[in-house]
Amino acid sequence: MKVALESRTRSLVKAATWRCLATCVTIAILYVLTGKAEFSIGTGILINFVKTVLYYLHERIWARVTWGVNRKH
Predict the structure, then answer these.
(1) From CA 20, how far away is CA 33, in angstroms rounded?
(2) Which residues lie closer than 8 Å to 3 by C-beta, 6 or more apart?
(3) What are the pLDDT digits (tens) for 59-73?
(4) H or E stretch including 28?
(5) How far is CA 37 from CA 18, 19, 22, 43, in A?
(6) CB neighbours of 70 closer than 8 A, spacing ≥ 6?
(7) Contact criterion met (CB below 8 Å) for 18 and 55
């Protein structure tokens, strides 16, 4: 069975949709803890932007790792 590698676009879309959900959760938690909407939104967006970039890079590195992938036909 041949294993298809994910495209960079697919990895980017997966990262973006996951981070949107995670951003909402982060903002909600920050708001519950601080009661400050502006702080919660700003901090949540900044944190999750950084995490999105790191997740994308992590995905691209793992896309090149052959460990644990059976590539026999």
Answers:
(1) 20
(2) 69, 70, 71
(3) 899 999 998 888 775
(4) helix 8-34
(5) 22, 19, 17, 10
(6) 1, 3
(7) yes
d(CA 32, CA 45): 16
By the 10 Å C-beta count (0-12 exposed, 13-18 middle, 19+ buried), 19 is classed as buried
Structural domain spans, the chain: 17-64
Q: 8-21: per-residue pLDDT in tens?
A: 899 889 878 988 89
pTM of the model: 0.62
Q: Which of 47, 12, 51 is nearest to 26 (CA)?
A: 47
Read off the tokens for 11. Answer: 């990895």
